[in-house]
What we know:
Number of helices: 24
Shape: elongated
Amino acid sequence: MIAKQRYIIGICTFCLILFVYSFKLYDLQIRNYSETQNQVTQTKPVKALRGDILDCNGTVLVGSKISHDISLSSSILSDQETLLQIIETLPPIYDSLPIEEEFPYAYRKQNDTFLSYLKHYNIKAPHNGADLLYQLAQVYHFNLDDSLVTTRQLVGLSYELDLRRLGLVSTPFIAAKDIDQTLFTALSANKLDGVTIHTNSKREYPYPIASHLLGYMGQIDESSLTQYLSQGYSMDSTIGKTGVEQRFEKILHGTDGLYAVNTSAEGIHISSEYVEKAVAGDHISLSISLPLQTACEEALASFISNSTHAKGGAIAIVNVHSGAVLSLASYPTYSLSSFSQDYNTLIENPNNPLFDRALQGTYAPGSTFKIITAIAALEKGIITEDTKILDTGKYTYYSYPQPQSYLYRTKGETLGPLNLSEAMAHSCNVYFYDVGRRVGIEAINYYAKQFGLGEPTGIELSQSAVGHIASPDTSNSLGQAWYEGNTLSASIGQENNLFSPLQLANYIAAVANGGTLYQSSILHRVWSYDYKTLLFEHYPVISSTTHLKPSTITAIKNAMLSVTQTETLAPVFKTLPFQIGAKTGSAQVGTHVESNAVFVCFAPFDDPEIAMAIVVEEGGAGSSLASLAKDILMIYADTCTQETEN
């Protein structure tokens, strides 16, 4: 009986549903046939807001807002009146025509796309950019009575549109980004032919810091267009090009939506609705600390700007117990807020502000490498903490080479017998020549690798350099000979020893924590788009454990402490609320060029939390960086001592 009732109810429900759908079909096809036939539906993409990038304490370093961009259609090519109207209406339009915007209209660097374009029109580029402008003006049938400035603008605009018409470039031509509300309203009310307004997501930068680390945004290039289209991106999407923006693109991007607008044949709005709602990207929390990053960038910029010879530099700071990167600063730097406008100036700057010296730069460590040489000798039993070696000013074990110490070479003075701490404090080359020769290059290389030198750091960012350790194999790969005497210069951080500032910081962190090398990481946490769910949290990853004898670590730390007690450095660091272990270095880079200055340290000495490496190109003596290090450590002491635990 119950089964029969259920059967009857099911049949009735089915009939009711069939009746509703039939009536709806009748309503659309019979009653409102003329209305639906004359209705036009357009779908428009809705850009998803990109996820935020935060520091370790939740301060937003990069955010997003809705913006409006302008794209142009190649249908307006050769329409001089429309093009002039666009030039007068829109903000200055950037084009890639390799001719300067101002007199004498010299050529910029030419590329294959430009050459293919000229080939299409059978034009051989004249030596004078102005002559080419006139030739192209004739191609597009422009009135040559216009000024050269206007001609340059017209031709540049036409060049970009023509590249798309000819299929040499497939991405849309975005003529203006983030237009203001006044222009948006004007263009919406008075549409120009060939001009389309796009709603987009624009990056905001509340703090002018960490440009190299965070990375800049840009349009999808030709080589990766197919890849991104297959992932659901639109042709006019902007993506991360470098740094964090590039590495975590999939997390930050979000999912674009679709918005349907229904209008009558006469253009009257009927209805609109979201077909697919846009989903914002997830948010990334980095391990860097805003106060520490700001302090590093400001102190580095001030030091280099006030230096006679210094060209650039970098600072890396890491947590000694996790490998988390607390700061990466590179100078000269650039502004992410005005990157597009500044691009041509940036790429032509001889000091290369786009180069990330903290991750991509590799430098000879100079005397900061003597810590490795000492570790190898202590572990192998070649020396003890108290072993004394006589400084004669000139190392004469080999008939050649017989390198001299700076003190002996310039003043004819020697330091006499020195133990490890004394040799480290005075950075005595003769001491480390002898130690390095006795321990041998293989043992030095072994411990250098154990401390991550010449090895990948593990940081998530792709632009991180690896460098290399001075060795017979390295010399061979570079087409150079290796002699037994090369061990002398290798043992004091010269030869082919080249490391990034981040590698140097990691190495000192491993010394400070007792011999554990952690994998570097910049990613702290990932939060859902609404900040309600923690999707990922980074935990420390050990790269290697050196298993050093406790006596070795104690001896090295005491030697690094002695460096800060010298007549030169003690006055600098006496105002710090804690002691630090440090080592200075001066790395020769040429006969008539000032040496690179290098400084490494860990702090506090009694209970290490952070390790820092500073490199300044042509900065001279490493001791000159002591005041720079002290300024940063003071900020750390005042604001960041608890952040290393987060």
